[in-house]
Amino acid sequence: MAGGVDLISLMKDGVVEPKALVNLKTIQDLTYIREDAEGLKIGALTSIDEIENARVIKDKYTMIAEAAHSVASPQVRNMATIGGNLCQEVRCWYYRRSPVTGTSFYCLRKGGKHCYAIAGRNEYHAIFRTGKCFAVCPSDLAPALIALEAKVKVARLDGERVVPLERFYTPLGNILEPDEIITEILVPAQPPDSKQKYLKFRLRKSIDFAISSVAASIIAESGRITKARIVLGGVAPTPYRAIRAEEVLKGQMITASVVEASAKAAVKEAKPLSLNAYKVPITEALVKRAIVG
Amino acid sequence: MANEIYTITLAVNSDDYQLEVEAQWTLADVLREKLGLTGTKTMCNEGGCGACTVLIDQKPVLSCLTLALECEGKNILTIEGMADPATGELHPIQTAFVEHSGMQCGVCTPGMILTAKALLNDNPNPTEAEVREALAGNICRCGNYKRIVECVLAAAEMMRGGNWNA
Amino acid sequence: MPEEFSILGKRLPRKEAIEKVKGEAQFVPDIQLPGMLYARLLRSPHAHARIVSIDTSKAEALPGVKAVLTHRNVPKVHPRRKLEYLLDETVHCAGEEVAAVAAVTKEIAEEALNLIDVEYEILPAVFDAEEAMKPGAPLAHIDYGSNIYHGTDLQPVPRCRPDGWLPVEIGDVEKGFTDADYIVEGTYETPMQYHCSPMPRSVICQWTGDKLTCWVDTQVVTRVWQDMAQCLSMPQSDVRLIATYPVGGYGGKEPERTAPLIALLARKADRPVKIVFSREEDAIGTHRRLSYKCYEKIGVKKDGAITAIYQKMITNFGRDSTWPMFILACSAVGTCSMLYPCPNSKWEGCTVITNTPSHAAFNGFGDPEAGFCLERIIDEAAERIDMDPVEFRLKNCMRYGTRGLGLRQILGLADTGDSGSKELDWGIVGRDIDSLQECIKKAAEKSQWQQKWKGWKTPVAVNGPRRRGIGIAIGIHHSAYHLSSAVVRMNQDGTANVMSSFVEMGQGFGTAVAQVVAEVLGLRYEDVGVLLADTAATPPGMGNVGSGGTSSGIAAAKYAAEDAKQKLFSIAAERLKVKPDELEAKNRRIYVKQRPAIGIPIAEACLAGYQVTGTAVNPQPESIIDEKTGKVIHSYAIAATIAEVEVDTETGMMDVVRITTAHDCGKAINPTIIENQIDLSVTMANGWVRSENYIIDQSTGVVINPNMLDYKIMTILDMPKSDDLQEILVESPCAWGPFGAKGMSETAMTTQAPALANALYNATGVRIRGDHLTPERILEALGKS
Predict the structure, then answer these.
(1) What's this model's pTM, rounded to 2 decimal places?
(2) Fewer CB atoms < 10 Å away: N or C end of chain A?
């Protein structure tokens, strides 16, 4: 347990019933924001609030500050950690159903055979079908960090490994083994003229998770795009790298038609469920706006 | 979880409480049920409304998602601690809420007042937009947001003019 | 000569403000009693099922469990004379309670629930109103025999047709349509809504010998008290209900089943019992707003006159209700028959029983729903003849002398006890309603309508994909003038206590009533204390429903204060050797009007009298007669709202830029409190159509989002900036209220949703006739998804 925001919620809903809680906050020196020649290093227990307000992040890794600011509410940002934000569980209302209501759903993600969202209420679920579960990865920081090519340091008792954040997520969670924790997030130094933008679309202007979000990192030389990374959040079981959208941009000038073509490419693979087709035009619009900045 | 009991000391407002808690008890439940400090309210009980906000080491946090066990060694401020402990005089934020009708049913009020206190600590002269951003995690079902903003701005003015330590 | 008031009309701080800012106001969940047990309820996973067997033996044997109740060991009574029994052998919605447990801790009570074995026989269920109306549809309530609610023996609805439809007809609509130059028609929908009271349902019961004390979070204390005594077969004199600090009921705070259940648990366990619903339980196990589907047709002439209106409304009743058919009747009379008094109008409505959570009163009580339907088609009609929508409303809206009726008459019930009549005996609306024109004009002026409205199909502004629009809606709601009573007790130090069964749940009743009583008695505001909602001391009253706090509750308090004043004047007159009618009371003194130096302190009169108590019961509503026409004046409040929105046509996000609401209030007792109430209704109505969605799975009847992360209440960032949330109070004294003041809390709720929809149309050129104005629906309407 780090900040506890997600875990205690899951415990209250009876989704997890741990026999013991391990308090990660007793581990020394996992709360830091440092910059060196390699880039930015953030300790996994650093609070979202600290990240949102850190000078170096606001100046040079703006997208991370934008994503951090969009998380939940000011109180949650004071409590929640970046490690917790990256590892948080899905928000699917079938998965999280509290048994006090008399109804419970033993869904596919819990080990059952059936996903209730497909034929049920799926307006907040995935439009990209990358697995059998359609709950979306709710993290705001994950798409932003993946767009910046972040890596995470994963530690266990007898050693550690470094994993690109892009390969951290699986359709049903992440690659952490039961005895592993994230200890650090490393973001490579960005070229000074890189453009970064994180845009989050949600029903309310606070508290809500993303209906769709876009993280775009664009590097251009003399107006021509040399590198583009576009990552979508809230629309797939894992953060979704919009590779087709990136390919449209490579080597191009940022014109209206190029941007539009890229946005269309971003959602080309989308296969909405019965109630969430509205996410497609929203995602397209966000991609356009994130590229232009 | 096996219901292990832990003996802890909690520093709440200007008092120290020694008590026994189970690991999974939240701070909100302990304040309300064990310490009789029912000023902290639970409206949604899952971090979505801000009613249970208390200040821990001067930062607003959600007591319904905080384990009591983890609060040892920290300074907890609840609504009961807002008035002057020596004289009982209301804090200017409380006075502003009284004078400018900052509450209707009163459930969100403790959370609003404490969050406002933390804001004015850091920013004694906030704009309306800054007040709204600070209260973005506090839901008022009675729709009293406009008045609440007025109260916080009025309190800020009072505090800038007086001797109060935010 | 205009009256000068020293307390009335002043923005005085709330009576209960200090305890609320200190966190000392104890809501029911905050109350702890020694030896108290905690109750939990077992809930059905099935929407419609018969309990074949229920075995509680293992639960009862669990150490710490002190009492268990099921349908087998509770009395077979209908709380609030509803369809269902206290605990029914058949459950009629998913989440309905089937058993109650009281134990020494909440955890043990919860564990006990898991030890109760229930065998269900699953019955066919139906969730959608129109589906339930089809021939061959499963019966949602098998014993009731029909899915169209038409009253019961305990609660008859005399004017309901045998087929379950309630009719209201004036003139000849068919002829009216033939007289029209244009006809506009369409089907409109309005959504359900969850009250989401800041405190979930909670009750504490404690027996002392054979006398029962209950702390109940409710807004209708007298009703709940009478009903509990009935359910428990007890004399009212041995039952005491206390609701000192109930919390934002918004119409729905009536724990009609829970309170008697907890009383029975407490009796069985012989210890006090407390229940606090979890947020999830509160969302599925209390009540919600009716949803409406309305087919409407309107005929207009080129000059803007309305020749005919036809409305057919179908509502989703759910499994039960504390106000069956009343809400529908309210739509029929207020918005549908009075707001635009055209000479030919026909309304028919029905309410359909389904296996979904029950419905209750909810801010607006049928008028927001009807308004969301009517005010959208009114806009379409105005467009059809290319008339400015403000002008169209000014031309056609109700005014003094327009027909008026009380909603009970629509049902065929009299206002007091006896059976009513099937004939509709129309009265009128009073002179105060002429303020509607003033409200419309003031709202138009403040919102800069003339500058912003550029004509039909022309947005206020266009900026890339962002388009701005402006729209208007007007609304009406009754300002309930019920029988109510009050007591004003003078204390020996010259202060007073006003005693009333109305509640202070945040709407400002306690403050306003103290202001009125202080004004009448010539005391200061701080001299008047309020003692509310304790049935051991406070006399009966309808409670805070139908915006009746001011019109009913405070009215009674004013009469009681006048009664006390007369008694004080008799005492003072004797001491001063003058006649009582020569006296005046102001500033804690009773003095001779013509010779103010001659007088005594009010305290002296109180001490001399030893016991001076004023009592009163409101006159019958039918006794409020219009001098000019001799007709009964029915009590209504009106509002006009102009909304300005900005729509992002690529994402469907609609931001609300400005909301201007002009509201009549008769006489503003405390302008701050009135503005608070307008803000409440504005915010709640915005949430109703922009972010709140009470989602019921149509295959299982399960409420999918019973929590506050998935059921989305407006946050502070979703509402306009303070300067752009504008409240205009129009004072036009009414015939029945205290000092001409009228209750108004709910009327602003009726105007918001249609104003937003009409503004959305102006911005984007798309009309949404469905029930939500969310990005999803806006994108759909724009053809983008």
Answers:
(1) 0.97
(2) C
